[in-house]
Write a structure and sequence with these properties.
Residues 9-695 form the Myosin motor domain. By secondary structure, this protein is of the alpha+beta class. It has 30 helices and 31 strands. The protein has an eight-stranded mixed β-sheet. The protein has a seven-stranded mixed β-sheet with strand order 1-2-16-3-12-6-7, with helices on both faces. It starts with 21 loop residues before the first helix and ends with a strand.
Length: 993
């Protein structure tokens, strides 16, 4: 039972109807169809309504929903019944079968494909190559069989015109290892004739519409189906079927299955030969029958790989053995046409049976030894024609409807048997159920000596001219008193029946009128031996295999071949025995309308199908007084939350006692029965009441579980956060302490180090201590500087201060500042002991080259002496006689270039700047710029005055109130610096090397 669908979609199981009646059944079926629920259960039977549209309910996700689940755990679906059959096969080591029935167009073939798809999807978790191969073969075989066995009818664009039963073999692990396909009663008359609005088998149209031009030319055929007599009717209509795409799909499927290239070519040649046969016409010249279009004989000779004269002879003559004599009897025009049509039908039927046999050769289990590999089990899938009632019902419809009677009888018997056995097992009294017993119809058809098949066979064996009317007379004679048989002779007033043509059978699905026209010919299924010998003697090995009886000599005496009716009856009896030996599962397909609309539900049309499928009887049998049954553990698992005695777990003696206590507490004890392993609920209302109480409790349980779970999650998150914070805090402390200890270890002995720890590498601090590390480095740097400075003399201190000042002003802008050497201060020996004014303290003295601005713009050698008050320019040739005195308070700034030259410009308040270039250094490349700038800066700082220092090239200055610039340039092969006049001022050229 499907319990996971809302009642807005109707009852998911017909067993749960309040009243078992046709109106309620139809109302529920219609509601579910309109709501898009195409599957409904009757216990373990699936009722499927063709939706006539693609539905997204067969995906891999849906497969996972049903895999391994019980029927009641998910909404009704084909996958549920397929999974139940697979579980029964795998768990209980039982052979199972799925019987799919319904009329043409109800969706049987699609259902069988989805079942195959599901079984293929749930098996083989290890993706072994051999298992994948078998699954692929089984799925691909559907495509090929549909092409050659299906056709468009007025009711269905893809109607199966044959019955198919497929066995899938599984090994002991549940993986498919092979299979076998059985086919029943191909409607071969469709090859030569189709009713208006119908087509022949798909294969003909696929060949014409999809084959490449080169293949068509080799077969001597053209793309237009209306050019061929046999398929002209179907070729004139427009169809939504894409024959071209289907041709390619079928060709690919045949290759995948294992058909060789030659075999596929032979298939095409046989189809082409049948088309050419249809266009073959006969004429009469006096008493002689002739072939009017002999060119086709030559074409068929080529396609059949035989001799032209043999083809012509087989078409026009029949070889007859009379004792020891063999004579050739010429056909009349009518006999020749009959033989041609019989050959076309027989060739197509043999082709179809050969294709099925070829597929079986490839997919059948080989080299399987049960003693070595373990027992293999089987799932059978039966997709067989549904009950058919047409305007004109002939021999094929009679056989098809007999087949459905046989299967319906099996269905009722097995379902009834299953129900009886279950009630007996559980110790529940069985209530007799009235149902339509098909056995009387089955006997009417197949009974020895009295049945319709027997009468038909007797008529075919009569000597002389046997007609269909003789057969009907035999039926009237033997079945005159049968309640389910009537004809116009037996019911003269019934004008719906034609004299000497029609008879009526009262089937379980309704009354069907059959026309006896063609019964004798179709039952005899006569094919002249000449055709069999012709095709057996072909040089094509595939054709030779299809006609093994052609090797018999004409004089050999053989048994009369079994008639088509006897063969079909025997195959049906064998099929039913096969199905009865397995555990059956059923899919009952219903066609909602005849116009293939996804919205229309024709109630009368569906009611008729419900009646002849026996669905209402199935519901009554299933209920048999109890609408629902379930094992105690599963019942308890679903409803235990209703009672305080069973929630969350019971402490009673057994699950049966717990179920009794639960139902007594709900007041339903009067409406149930307790079996040995199951509880039986009598009315659906009780079950719905249990479901309502469960739904109400589930909401409360869900809220409670949500509350508990959310609280649990919150506590878990809190504990995780608190633990993380504790760990984080401890880790930070550890990292801080580790860093402090490491710094302490590395710098412990810096006082005794020669460089006071300057070369010690600082450890990498944790992120939280980065600012602390900066402060620590600053403290260390100050301590290191203080340690160095505290041992200096006052003169050394002054020099250090000057160097620091120079570094701050020039660092990064001049490469060499002379910081590594001792700054002498006085580089003019002649003025070391005194100068122009003995009261002034000497700061710096240096020999330099001064550009004196006169009318000649010439550079002269001069010396500079800087005291704490003045800057003196002196002549070194006149014993350093002062030539110019510049008060230091008048100096506002100093400019130097960024290069290695020794250019210095002293800027003054009165715009009379002094431009000098230091020279005469020992060693020659020594730089004095840093010392000069540092000394002046240090002095000005001590005076609390500001001195501007500029680094640029060119240097802007003022000479006697006029703005100009000094540019430094290098010159190769120049021995000493020199000044020269330029447009914008002056150029100082310095040695390049």
């Amino acid at each position: 039972m499907a319990e996971h669908e809302s009642l807005e979609f109707g009852k998911a199981d017909f067993v749960l109807l309040d009243n078992v009646s046709m109106p309620e059944f139809m109302a529920n079926l219609k509601l579910r169809f309109e709501k898009g629920r195409i599957y409904t259960y009757i216990g373990e039977v699936v009722v499927s309504v063709n939706p006539y549209r693609a539905m997204n309910i067969y995906s891999r996700d849906t497969v996972e929903l049903y895999k391994g689940r019980e029927l009641y755990e998910r909404p009704p679906h084909l996958f549920a019944i397929a999974d139940a059959a697979y579980k029964a096969m795998k768990r209980r080591n039982k052979d199972t079968c799925i019987v799919i029935s319904g009329e043409s167009g109800a969706g049987k073939t699609e259902a069988s494909k989805y079942i195959m798809q599901y079984i293929a999807a749930i098996t083989n978790p290890n993706q072994r190559a051999e298992v994948e191969r078998v699954k692929n073969m089984l799925l691909k075989s559907n495509c090929v069989l549909e092409a050659f066995g299906n056709a468009k009818t007025n009711r269905n664009d893809n109607s199966s015109r044959f019955g198919k039963y497929m066995d899938i073999n599984f090994d002991f692990k549940g993986d498919p290892i092979g299979g076998h396909i059985s086919n029943y009663l191909l409607e071969k008359s469709r090859v030569i004739f189709q009713q208006n609005g119908e087509r022949s088998f798909h294969s003909f149209y696929q060949l014409l519409k999809g084959a490449p031009d080169s293949l068509l030319r080799s077969l001597h055929i053209q793309k237009d189906p209306t050019a061929y007599s046999y398929i002209r009717v179907g070729g004139q209509m427009k169809s939504s079927i894409n024959d071209g795409a289907e041709f390619r799909a079928v060709a690919d499927a045949m290759k995948v299955i294992g058909f060789t290239g030659d075999e596929i070519q032979t298939v095409y040649k046989i189809l082409a030969t049948i088309l050419h046969l249809g266009n073959l016409t006969f004429g009469v010249d006096g008493d002689t029958t002739l072939i009017e279009n002999k060119k086709l004989v030559s074409v068929m000779r080529e396609l059949l790989s035989t001799k032209e004269e043999n083809v012509e002879k087989a078409l026009l003559y029949r070889t007859v053995a009379t004792g020891r004599d063999v004579i050739e009897k010429q056909h009349t025009e009518q006999e020749a046409s009959y033989g041609r049509d019989a050959l076309a039908k027989a060739m197509y039927e043999r082709l179809f049976c050969w294709i099925v046999g070829r597929i079986n050769d490839i997919i059948e289990v080989k080299n399987y030894d049960a003693r070595v590999h373990g027992k293999n089990t089987v799932i059978g899938v039966l997709d067989i024609y549904g009950f058919e009632i047409f305007q004109n019902n002939s021999f094929e419809q009679f056989c098809i409807n007999y087949c459905n009677e046989k299967l319906q009888q099996l269905f009722i018997q097995l379902v009834l048997k299953q129900e009886q056995e279950e009630y007996q097992r559980e110790g529940i009294p069985w209530k007799h159920i009235d149902y339509f017993n098909n056995q009387i119809i089955v006997d009417l058809v197949e009974q020895q000596h009295k049945g319709i098949f027997s009468v038909l066979d007797e008529a075919c064996m009569n000597v002389g001219k046997v007609t269909d009317e003789v057969f009907l007379q035999g039926l009237n004679g033997k079945l005159a008193k049968h309640a389910h048989f009537s004809s116009r002779k037996l019911s003269p007033t019934d004008k719906s029946l034609e004299f000497d043509r029609d008879f009526r059978l009262r089937h379980y699905a309704g009354d069907v009128v059959y026309s006896v026209v063609g019964f004798i010919d179709k039952n005899k299924d006569t094919l002249f031996q000449d055709f069999k010998r012709l095709l057996y003697n072909s040089s094509n090995p595939v054709l030779k295999v299809m006609w093994p009886e052609g090797k018999l000599s004409i004089t050999e005496v053989t048994k009369r071949p079994l008639t088509a009716a006897t063969l079909f009856k025997n195959s049906m009896i064998s099929l039913v025995e096969n199905l009865a030996s397995k555990e059956p599962y059923y899919v009952r397909c219903v066609k909602p309308n005849d116009v293939k609309s996804p919205l229309l539900f024709e109630e009368e049309r569906c009611r008729h199908q419900v009646e002849y499928l026996g669905l209402l009887e199935n519901v009554r049998v299933r209920r048999a007084g109890f609408a629902y049954r379930q094992t105690y553990p599963r019942f308890l698992q679903r409803y235990k939350m209703i009672s305080e005695f069973t929630w969350p777990n019971h402490d009673l003696g057994s699950d049966k006692d717990a179920v009794k206590r639960l139902l007594q507490g709900c007041g339903f004890d009067h409406d149930v029965a307790y079996g040995k392993t199951k509880v039986f609920v009598r009315t659906p209302r009780t079950l719905f009441s249990l479901e309502e109480q469960r739904a109400e409790m589930v909401q409360r349980i869900v809220l409670f579980l949500q509350k508990v779970w959310r609280g649990t999650l919150a506590r878990m998150r809190y504990r995780r956060m608190r633990a993380a914070l504790v760990i984080l805090r401890a880790y930070r402390c550890y990292k801080v302490k580790s860093y402090i200890r490491e710094v302490n270890r590395r710098f412990r002995n810096v006082r005794s180090m020669k460089d006071y720890g300057r070369q010690v590498k600082w450890p990498t601090p944790p992120k939280v201590l980065r600012k602390f590390e900066e402060a620590l480095r600053s403290i260390y740097s100050r301590w290191w500087a203080w340690t160095l400075i505290k041992g200096l003399t006052p003169e050394e201190t002054l020099q250090v201060r000057a160097k620091v000042a120079s570094l701050e002003a020039l660092k990064g802008q001049r490469a060499d500042m002379g910081l590594q050497r001792t700054w002498e201060g006085n580089y003019l020996v002649g003025v070391r002991d005194g100068g122009p004014r003995h009261a002034e303290r000497q700061i710096h003295a240096v020999e330099l080259c001064v550009c004196q601005i006169n009318r000649f713009h010439r550079a002269e050698d001069r010396a500079v002496l800087i005291t704490d008050r003045h800057l003196y320019k002196m002549d070194p040739l006149k014993q350093y006689k002062p030539m110019k005195t510049l008060p230091l308070y008048n100096v506002t700034g100093v400019s130097v270039s960024p290069g290695k030259d020794q250019l210095v410009v002293f800027h003054t308040k009165d715009n009379r700047d002094l431009v000098v270039c230091l020279q005469g250094m020992v060693p020659a490349n020594e730089s004095r710029i840093g010392e000069l700038v540092g000394t002046l800066l240090s002095h000005f700082k001590s005076e609390k005055r500001k001195l501007q220092v500029h680094i640029s090239n060119p240097i802007q200055c003022s000479m006697n109130g006029r703005k100009c610039s000094v540019v430094v340039e290098t010159k190769i092969n120049q021995s000493r610096p020199d000044f020269a006049k330029s447009r914008s001022g002056y150029v100082l050229t310095v040695p390049g090397n």
